[in-house]
Design brief:
By secondary structure, this protein is α/β, with parallel strands linked by helices. The protein has a single domain, classed as 3-Layer(aba) Sandwich (Rossmann fold), CATH 3.40.50.1820. About 30% of the residues lie in helices and about 25% in strands. The strands form two sheets. A seven-stranded mixed sheet has the order 1-3-2-6-7-8-9, with helices on both faces. The longest helix has 20 residues. It starts with 7 loop residues before the first strand and ends with a helix. The mean pLDDT is about 95.
Length: about 220
């Protein structure tokens, strides 16, 4: 690891930890955003799970008039069809997440027991970092998001990563990242032979109780509960 680790909120469900879930927040939020979800997931005491909720770096965001806020990369427009993607920012944030993964491995958690999750911008980084990184992970969870820089990302998905379980969920009334962008990403990933568990809910750019219930089921399956 060549750089300082991101600051994270850390929650463990038991003293003996066997798995780690690294959960990335959306634009303008912080690691506190999804901290309250842990008790809602109804996870069992065993195996113990360490949740890490990292804070994204503070950077100027073009779509918000250049205001500085926590973000994994810059966004110039909500027009997905025409906007330029912040490739450098995406790759820089993916490298920061890879450092967190390496640190968890050094703490005794194998890559095969690490899940990368994220919402919106955080979900985009989770998909990119989780499917193109050095290690095959236990799973990737991408909520209300899409796969960024697909021209580079899709060819970088190795045969080993194809067996990584991927959970994608999206709101049918999402006004920030319209559901067709998530569906396009899902179909592009499936065309690359990534297996997706897909869910859609009657909600906007948010998280719903039904979604949390499905996340719990999926997490328990990956964690062998």
């Amino acid at each position: 690891m060549s750089q300082k680790l991101l600051d994270c909120i850390e929650i463990a469900t038991a003293e003996q930890v066997e798995y780690t879930v690294i959960w990335l927040h959306g634009l303008g939020a912080s690691g506190h955003d999804f901290e309250p979800i842990v008790p809602e997931l109804t996870l069992l005491q065993r195996p113990g799970v360490r949740f890490l909720f990292p804070h994204a770096p503070i950077r100027p965001i073009t779509i918000n008039n250049g205001a500085a806020m926590r973000g994994w990369y810059d966004i110039t427009s909500l027009d997905f069809g025409s906007r330029a993607q912040d490739t450098d920012g995406i790759k820089e944030s993916a490298a920061l997440i890879h450092d967190l993964i390496e640190n968890e491995i050094s703490r005794g958690i194998p890559a095969s027991n690490i899940i990368l999750a994220g919402f919106s911008q955080g979900g985009a980084i989770a998909l990119y970092a989780g499917l193109t990184g050095q290690h095959k992970l236990c799973g990737v969870m991408a909520l209300s998001t899409y796969m960024p820089i697909q021209d580079e990302a899709l060819p970088a998905i190795t045969a080993e990563h194809l067996s990584t379980p991927v959970f994608m969920a999206h709101g049918e009334m999402d006004e920030v990242i319209q559901i067709q962008h998530a569906i396009q990403s899902k179909e592009a990933l499936e065309a690359s032979n990534v297996i997706i568990e897909w869910h859609a809910y009657p909600m906007p750019h948010s998280v719903s109780p039904d979604e949390i219930a499905d996340i719990s089921i999926w997490l328990k399956r990956q964690l062998g509960m």
